[in-house]
Amino acid sequence: MGLAHADVTQMKSSVNREETPNKIQENLILPYFFSTETMGFNLGVGGMLKGWHQDQMTIGATAFKGDVSHGFWAGVFNYRINDSERWYLSANGLLAYFPDQRAYTGARQPVAPGDVTPGSNESNNEQYLEADGDSNWVDMKLEYALPFGATKDSGIVDYQLKNGMLVSAPSGGKEWNPLTSGAMVATMRYFSRFQSFEFESQQLSGDMSAVEFGLLYDNTDFGTNPSFGSRQYVSYTTSSPWGDKEYDWDLWQFSASKFFSFGESEYAHQRVLALNLWTAYSPSWDLLKTPNGSTVITDAAPYNEGATLGGFKRMKGYDFYRFHDKAAIYATAEYRHTLKYNPIEDVQWLKFLKLDWFQLVAFAEAGRVAPEYDFGTLTDDIKFDYGVGLRAMLAGLVVRTDLAISNEGTNMWVMVDHPF
Asked: Where in the cell is it found (predicted)?
């Protein structure tokens, strides 16, 4: 199970609910629990404050505790720097300790002749390192809303909602033209991870840091819960000059999403088909042969970054970072059915949730990692999974629970925002 935010970069927006008119500020406190094979039973509580100080800004925090595991996450998102129109700063981080952390990697050790590289498409799910340890990270990004399209006059798009449905003008989607429709956001991101694996005989480190430069074009009608339009994101990531000098790696990524609306029905506010294609390639990744015939991977992104699949965002039926290699391709389709029926609408003691709708979701995913960017290789022996989800809009934010099934097991994920 994981709790996380989905997208690296998002269009800057504020939401005004008709149910709380002229009240941009929204807050939410939500207790939760989860149980996994490795972490056992955990209790937690999370909170969110939206629209405080600045209309588009969000502050969030959560803490959880189990028998061995414990963690605390906090973040500030979309703070407009010095009240500027277009510059935004976000920062969040996690301090946590987990039992039986699992990494599908060989820890950069040589692979003997005839053996399969851990984490590769041909590997099995028994090839991993596992130990208790810390998993701490920090993620900061600076963003700039470009001055055209929906953000021509202001860096923020204002949305008006009724029952969680958009009633103001859409921000894009009727034409594909960044100069007149949708919003573009440029981003520079720095992120570091400080991870340890505490074996009886030694302690391994998974520390890393990197810098990402990206450009988002969001040409959907409503960035938080799109019903039509498209979204594209391209980025380049490189190991940071302040990180481990032994490993110098880089990565290109591209993501494209398309949304088709089937309109309203007797029981649904919206019926939407959502499609996403993502691909990644690491030019620095190299495979070297040693004199004894074994192979060593050099200048590769860490197993939990780069061209990787598995986890709450892509290939949800597989464990976190189950697959990783020089290149990757991924495609998914979701059907999102937003119900008119809200069973807690008139339940007074649950009003604090500010729950506008429930959404039923069915999805299927396909993906593949490979040691080269070759279309024939990337479309051979593809991995698949499928699943269902229950999503809800709480105080203008989408919260989701997804259940995914693959040939390696079943996973349940709880997080904020759609996966794309």
From this structure: Membrane
